[in-house]
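EI: anyone free to look at a 573-residue chain?
SC: sure, send it
EI:
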Amino acid sequence: MAFLMASGVQAQDLKIFVNQKGLIGYADQDGNEVIKCQYESGQAFENGVAIVTKGGKSGIIDATGNVLLPLKYSKIQTWGNNLYLIQEGKKMGLTDKKGTITLPVEYSLISSPNCYGKALIAQGGKQNPIPNEKKSYMLGAKYGIIDANGNVLVPASYKGLYEFSYDPKTQPPYREGRRLEFSYHSTTDTLTTDCSYLGFSGNGLSIYNAGIIDGNGKQLLAQGLYYFVMKPQSDMVRYYNVKKKQVLCGYHNLNTGQSFQAVAFDKAFNDITFWTHGDFIGDIAPVNGQTWSFINKTGQTLRSGYSSLIHSQPTGLWAAKNASNTWDVFDDSNNDVATLSGFNDIKFPYNEESKEVFSVQKEGKYGCITRSGLVVIPFDYDQALGNCYNMIAVKKDDKWGMQSTDNETLIPMEYISIVLPSELETKHMWVKKADSLYYHINLDTKQVSPTGYKAVSNYKDGIAHVIPLNMVIEDTQVNRAQLFNPNTPKATIYAADLEKNKQAFGYLINTDDKLVIDLPTTLLYKDAIVKEMKNLGSKELTASQKKNILLEVTRENRSYDLKSTLSEDEWNY
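SC: here you go
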């Protein structure tokens, strides 16, 4: 009868129960002990099972108390798609809730799956501290990749395994694309890409001379061929071979296995201050020599004689300035777009969400046209920026305003600067007046807030980050004791110029110009703070809620010396 009663209980109805000896079991809603109190610790039931510990070893039981996974593991935690990470000594593996081992317990590292469902695995090696960080990595290990179901995609056989995650757009030699990024593979970090392409080598501490594999471990490019490579695009790999005072730039065709050198520069790599050559996005790629030219996948020159280039990935178009100082516009397949060509200047839409409306200049004046050449904003302006979320900043007589792509006036031409929008269909933006302060403008009511700020970030999700006029801005590292001390004067906050540094400290305000977080916070944490505010579901936060939100989002970045004393706020939290 006891067995029947127990088996009829739903797992979600069971609650952790502690007897007088401090042992843990599980009871039903009426307090009846269903699973005997025999465990040192136990977690709540989830998906019909619970993790329990006895004698320092953990396992998994079901709602009847039946042991599904033997209590012999030093660590068990939820992982991926309904799986559990299990650890026995220094070895890790994966199991499902029925106790079936899906990945053998033979790995020295299994990271958490990233947003693409990919995780890093390692075999062998020993934990070693990462220089200048409070993290460790597996020195001498061999790495591989698994998916969120525990399937091995890339066997753990590479001492060096690196992602194409480095964005070098601010570095002139690269300009576009993704480069391999060196990582120590911290035991607490996750991967950052979808791992469709990976770099590999026999060197666990260098990205140079790496080969390339795809996301299933198939070798696409042998290691040692090129000094460093960019992420494959259109089945072509852009490479650099770097010598002491020479840089050789070229391409490798993954389909044919053939490569060719496109251009060479007689200078050290670190002395190159210009874009050398670009990825194949489609059928053509740009190469920089005496002038810019465009080549196909065999290295044949298709176009040449250009002094400047613009590439718009959202539209798939190139613009190249010719010898007549006008712009030729063509697509990634080298097809001319005559309706957009022949202008003295052209600016492409900034993002994929924006309509294909282009700002162009002719006869000294700017206007806007569609890809078909239809004029949607007349040629009345001294300057026009690119289409940003279907808003176009225009300038006339040294004053800036904002027009929609339908030529509706959104912001009158009265300001010395306008902060471009950060999202579609926004109704709240920032304008800069002659006093060099930024003011909030409501695009519906056309009202401008009376309060000016020294620096701002744009509104997103109804919240903006601002630095008030009375706030002292210094390029100084934040003193945590001051930051969380309620007695610190709010005008004495260490920050940096918000327009240059996301570490700048300021406040958060809403679209009603009310402070929602009046404790110093950085733009770096803004999104995380807004998420926490939404979780609370409170329109007006208490002082305690504000402090706790900041403590929560900065948790990973706060540390304490053993001799230090915590502030009351942090201790209470």
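EI: Residues 1-8, 473-501 have pLDDT under 50 and may be disordered.
SC: 👍
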